Amino acid sequence: MTARTWCTTMWLAVVVALLLMATQAHADDLVEHRIRYSITARNTSGELLRNVDVIAAGPVSRTGAQRTVSLQASSTFELQSDERGNQELRFRLTMAPYATKMITIDTVVEFATRPAAQRLKDEPSFLRAEPFVEVGHPAVSAAAEHVEGKSPSEVADALFRSVVGRVRTSGYVSEPHGALYALETGKGDCTEAMYLLVALARSRGIPARGVAGFVVSHDAVVHAIDYHNWAELYLDGAWRIADPDKRVFGTASSQYLAMRILGGTAEQLLGGAAVSASRPELAVRID
Description:
Radius of gyration: 23 Å
Number of helices: 5
Number of domains: 2
Distance between the termini: 69 Å
Shape: globular
CATH topology of the largest domain: C8orf32 fold
CATH architecture of the largest domain: Roll
Largest sheet: 5 strands, mixed
Order of helices and strands: HEEEEEEHHEHEHEEEEEEEE
Helix content: 10-25%
Structural class: alpha+beta
């Protein structure tokens, strides 16, 4: 073997080794969770219900830290999505009088331990006021301006800590009250803490959004009681977890399963609920 051939061989070996290391490092940054949940539909009337639509949330198709790999159910469904990646499964059921039907949904979701950089689309929609996010209200503006920080990351951290210190957990609240309520009363559950942080961040020019879903650390069967809300703030080119209720900021991306990104048309999908039906006689719930 000549010196030139030896050098070429060694160079190729180094390149292959680096590629293998990069691939392995990428693989180590990804985890897969198999998630199962069930919905129950019950005909509360004495009439036959034909072709009733039942709509259930599916995992968000893709975020900076999440990708839905597969989605299956025990009944046939149509899959629809919106511009934010929210997905809904539409089942068409015919239900006998007083009949009950359970549908099981199985999904495999891939998570990254660190959120990937994403180009922010439609930035104004993540900065403006929305229902329950009272950006522009004098009290919200004053609270947002009160915190200090030299960079967006420092301001975001200070806002997060202010919400953690301000909102006392009052247990589950069936109806959302929003950011202003949490600010003025200092009470609320994960939903109010989420809305307050989103409103404060937007008031300081930091794009923010609310997210609904589940916190999972492994394969799991999730239930309605596990449903959770948190915020995400757009910092350094990526969406970062900010969960005042659980005291999590900027970490644990692989444990947060996004089922719906709030705002935009997300409130039209499912009417803001995790499961809904096109006829009031059909009662539906996530078990």
